[in-house]
Design a protein that fits this description.
This protein is of the alpha+beta class and 156 residues long. It is 35% helix and 22% strand. The chain is built from 5 helices and 8 strands; from the N terminus they run ββαββααββαββα.
Length: 156
């Protein structure tokens, strides 16, 4: 399973090509598809991205939701119908589709932010505002993670 941490900013060329950070490409090495799976976030003005192994896990999790239910249809439509496989070129770049760039407001710079098993691609200024708001919410709610080996509690 690929792990993505850190924040990186890269230039987007006029054709929409952007280099995926080397650390992220290394985390994806050895997967069946030489690239990423990506889709417009349904929660933020960003693009969600992951390796195909994590996309397979999301598909498996979605299959646990009642087939043909509104919840299943909404998630499947939002995530899977919008997903695209974006292959790396010889220099580690992907082509960000126009619809993804428009959704995220990305023009000439893109910020890649690790989120653990997936990562997001943002317009850099929007990302900084999002990070500041997330930190503030985490402080207000006193969010924590459970200690290793402790499956109870956590979260608050």
């Amino acid at each position: 399973m690929a792990i993505f941490i850190g924040t990186f900013e890269n230039k987007v060329d006029q054709k929409g090509r952007v280099s995926v950070p080397a650390q992220f490409r290394q985390a994806l090495a050895g997967q069946a598809f030489n690239g990423i799976a990506a889709f417009r976030s349904h929660r933020a003005d960003a693009v969600e991205a992951c390796g195909m192994d994590f996309m397979e896990q999301m598909i498996a999790r979605a299959s646990e939701i009642d087939l043909f239910s509104e919840t299943h249809d909404d998630l499947a439509t939002t995530i899977f119908s919008d997903s695209q496989q974006l292959g790396f070129d010889s220099t580690g770049r992907i082509m960000l589709p126009d619809s993804f760039r428009t959704h995220a407001g990305i023009a000439d710079r893109a910020a890649f932010v690790g989120m653990g098993q997936l990562f997001q691609i943002w317009e850099p200024e929007k990302l900084e505002a999002h990070k500041a708001a997330a930190r503030q919410r985490a402080r207000q709610q006193r969010l924590t993670l459970p200690a290793p080996g402790n499956s109870g509690g956590g979260g608050r």
